[in-house]
Amino acid sequence: MECSLVSQYFLSPADRWMVSHKFLVSPDGGSCSESLSSVELWAETATLSYKMDYEPSFLRTLFSLILVSSLLDCVLSEVDAFPDTKTWFENLLPSTMCIQNASIESVYGIMFDAGSTGTRIHIYSFTQKYPDQLPELRKEIFESVKPGLSAYADIPEQGAETIRGLLEVAKDAVPSSHWKKTPVVLKATAGLRLLPEKKAQALLSEVKNVLEESPFLVPDNSVSIMNGTYEGILAWITVNFLTGQLYSQSKQTVGILDLGGASTQITFLPQSEETLEQSPLDFITSFKMFHTTYKLYTHSYLGLGLKAARLATLGAVETGAVDKQIFRSSCLPKNLEAVWEFGGVSYRYGGIENDYGKGGILEVRDFERKAIEVCDHMEGFTSSSPFLCMDLSYITALLKEGFGFKINTPLQLTKKVNNVETSWSLGATFLMLQSLRISN
Ligand SMILES: O=c1ccn([C@@H]2O[C@H](COP(=O)(O)OP(=O)(O)O)[C@@H](O)[C@H]2O)c(=O)[nH]1
Ligand SMILES: [Ca+2]
Question: Any idea which GO molecular function terms this record carries (predicted)?
Answer without folding.
Answer: ATP binding; nucleoside diphosphate phosphatase activity
